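Folds vary. Our protein:
___
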Amino acid sequence: MTEVAFALCNSYDEALTASAIASVLRPFGGMKAFFRAGERVLIKPNLLGAWAPEKRVTTDPVIIAAVIGLVQKAGGIPFVADSPAIGSFKRISEKTGVGKVCRELGVELLELSAPRPIKPPGGSRFRRLEIASQVLDAGCVINLPKLKTHGQMLMTLGVKNLFGTVVGQRKAEWHHMAGVDRDTFASLLLDIYLTVKPSITIIDGVWAMEGHGPSNGSPKRLNLIGAAMDAVALDVSICRMLGVPLDAFPIYREARRRRIGMTDISRIRVVSDGPTDMACKGFVVPRLDSMGILPGGFDWFTKRFLVSRPVQERSSCRECGMCREICPVSAIENRRGRLLFDYDRCIRCYCCQEICAHNAIHFKSGLIVKALNYLKR
């Protein structure tokens, strides 16, 4: 049996949060089980961009502070690191509150850099990966994701959070190479997970995000902290708890196909300090298009007419240019305040929507989503 631990945590009160995290680590031997005294421990939160904690886009600074404290108490030398897809790392660290936490606790805060080529594990579709050297050199990696929805991959949980170990703009390059097909991209994420090998994944679900995630969804209070040594099992358990259909979750499909982690719910033992049934009703997830319903020669027709496409909400747009900067295929042009999308070039990677801080990019439903919504009535 694979164990996944959950604890109820009703607020980001410092003492309550630290107690809840200690509780979910107890079944695995506590924090001291993951590293030796004096070892450098990399804490990898979700620092997607410059959003304040109350937006619920990034890992809450109280969660990060609690993990730092537990690492220090266990004799480790913690440092916090991530590589946001775009934007000033200094501004992001200050806006999210992580910079303040690290200064107060005397902990190093690093922007991941210096990508190092590394051969992925057996069964990979790719010849090599490039992971930040600080991650590969760390004695222990603690994965600290935010529980959120995701417009391309349905959910951002433990496995997806490690995409942040890919350095900066190289994320957009991977979106270009693998992002057209969700299962291919999920396979890439699993390769990164197997390469980074986090010792433990602790997820921040005290306040989560539902709907149009990962940055412009709606905050959702779940009062939940979870942990597992197997991030796949943790992701699968959370989806089940939220009522998310597993077959709609690309990481579950690929993990099951490749036999990575535990995907069989009947073989996952949930340890909880609260009610045995911690299910959440009414959690809203995005409806994903299927990109592969027609043969490859009809990709142009699928993208133009069947799947959803990005559109600008002009009243919200601040013309910051971040969407154009992050687009891996240069499919966006700004013409006198109006964003023009080249839908033939667009790969529907959702990077533009993901990075927009002003909720100025939405997706016009394609025929597939419209049909699904009609059938759901």
Notes: The domain at 296-376 is CATH 3.30.70.20 (Alpha-Beta Plaits). The first strand starts at residue 2 and ends at 8. Residues 61 and 163 are 20 Å apart (CA to CA). Residues 291-302, 367-377 have pLDDT under 50 and may be disordered.
